[in-house]
Amino acid sequence: MKTLWQALLRAAAAADAFVSNGGRLAGFGSVFSLRGKRKERLELAEWRWCQMGVKWCSRNVPLSSSEGWRYQKANRNPGRREQSLSPEKMLVSPMAERNKETILEVLADYVDDTRSAFGLELGSGTGQHVVHFAQALPTVIWQPSEISPASQQSISAYIQATKVTNVREPLAIDVTQPWDQWAGLSQGCCDFIIIINLLHMTDQGLEGMFKGIGQLLKPGGICLAYGPFAVNGIILPECNVQLDNMLQARNPEWGLRDVEELRQLANTNALRLERMLEMPEYTKCLIFRRREL
Ligand SMILES: C[S@@+](CC[C@H](N)C(=O)[O-])C[C@H]1O[C@@H](n2cnc3c(N)ncnc32)[C@H](O)[C@@H]1O
């Protein structure tokens, strides 16, 4: 039975590599139809789980996710990695893997690579974003943060595995707490604050979070907020409406935030919504700038 399972896994890994390289597998059934409708459905489900804060890839990796396969392979063959690393703690978000480069492209426009800077990430999740940004933007010292201990461990494991030297160990920050309880960060210490897919999962903490951002950013500093948003009360397209409904079913205070609501919150905290960019998968990047004194 074990041998049969191992043979199946080897076949699946080969199929995954083949399909990942652009191949098509006819006749293998739905498990391997990674480029078909099943994959689209699976990715949409992953997106929703991710948005709802489900630990989407910790152990129950869906069979048809190629990212999932990579995660499983890393954990089944720990000997292939250095013994000191903790690959089993490295959570994988396929969504983060897909969006990290496009977010980086936006962020890079605001980074001056001739001077050092300090960037804080709130709700860092797995740690995939922060190490990616750190590798591409070495003049910035990055400070990830998370409420979830499993995510904090994952971030540390990514720091260790990638050997990045410009990412600090994650801080335990709950954004619903007053900003002066955010792990002792001092007023005006940040050149950048990054928030990815977090705003729709904060309830009464939203006002406090914007107050914290206004307090922690230096004058002229930038807050980049990425995710799906409503515009003038309208949510588009249908998959974002469904996501909004699901979030509210889970917590009536959650849901997609309206850009206008955020603009007003920003204004009351010395921040100005400077730019709104359309991003892939019906998301946006909002760029807020801290007013000069
Ligand atoms: C949808 S996930 C996004 C994670 C990551 N930014 C990404 O895009 O992959 C939301 C994250 O916010 C974290 N989170 C939820 N509530 C939080 C809070 N009150 N304070 C800080 N982080 C929180 C969750 O633990 C989770 O990792």
Automatic annotation (TrEMBL):
InterPro entries: DUF938, SAM-dependent_MTases_sf. Pfam families: DUF938 (PF06080). Belongs to the UPF0585 family. PANTHER family: METHYLTRANSFERASE-LIKE 26 B, UPF0585 PROTEIN CG18661. This is Methyltransferase-like 26. It comes from Podarcis lilfordi.
